[in-house]
Here is the input.
Amino acid sequence: MRNLFSINIENQTENPGDNEHSSPFILREIYKSLTKGQSKIADKMELLEKKWALPTWLSYARVVALGIGAMLLACAVMVLIGVGFAYAFSSPWFIVAFVAGVLLCAFGTVCYVVEYKRRKKVEASDEYKRAMDEIDRMAKRSENYLNLPNEKTKVDILFYTYIVRDNKMRDNSAFKYLNMSFYLFEEENKLCLANSNAVYGIDKTAFKRIVSDPKKTSFTLWNKDESHISEEYKQYKITLDHYGVYHVRGTCSVQFETQQGQAREIVIPPYELPHFEKILNLKPIDNEDDETVK
Here is the structure.
C-alpha cells in the first residue's frame, strides 16, 4: 500500500507531493513564476529563522543537558525521600550529583530562554513583518489561481518520508511521517486536496475503505491555530515532548484504487477523520479486521 504523498529525504529538491504516485492526480497547478516567488520568500524566511536559532551543537547540548539534569534531580529527590535531608547531604556523591543536575537544567533552560528572546526580537522586526505579509499575499494569489472554493477545510496530511536502498523505498529511521497542511474540499464528485502549489483530485468512487491503525505516530509540526491541548483536540491525547516532537495515538489510512487497479492511501491523523468521513461517507475499520492491508 503506497502513500499518495511521499518525500525522499535524501533528495531535498523534490517538492512535497510531486512524485510519480501523486502527479497523475494533479488537476491544476500554479504557474512557474509564482513558484519562483514562493521559493524566494521561503529562502528569506529560512535566513530569518537562522538569526534566532542557536548553533546546531548548542541545540543538541541543551537537550542532552536537560535530559541528564532532569534524571539526576529525579534520582536526588528519590534519595531525599528515602534517607532524608541530613543523611543525603552528608554524602559528597549526592551533593555532586545534585549540583550537577541543577547546573545542567539551568544551562538547558538558559539556552531555551535565549533562543526565545532572539526569536521574539526577530519577529518584532520590520523585515520579518514584511516577509509575513509577502507570504500572505503569495498564499492568496496561489488560492485565487488554483480556484479554491469557499467551502474548504484545512486538514493535516501525513507524508511518508523515505530513503532509497537497493532500489527500494524504506522507512526513514527518524520520522516515518511529516505533517503537512492541505485544504480539503469536494469538486465534481472528486475528493480534492490542495496545497500552495497544486490541486489533487481523486474520484470518490475510487475510495474503498478507511483503516484505523492504533500504533502511535509522531511528527514535528503542529499546523492548527488552536493548541494541541485545546478543548477541540483534548480527546486525541496529543502530547509534546521536550524534544519538540508531537505524539498521537493512531493513524487513519484512507484507501483507494487507481484506474490501473493499483492500491494507494492517504494517511491522516485521527483528528482529521470526521472531515473525510463526511465527504466519502465511509466509516473506519480496525487494521486487524482488514486482511487486505499490507
Remarks:
- DSSP finds six helices and 13 strands in the chain.
- Residues 6 and 160 are 4 Å apart (CA to CA).
- The helical segments are 32-52, 56-83, 85-88, 92-123, 126-146, 273-280.
- Confidence is low (pLDDT under 50) at residues 289-294.
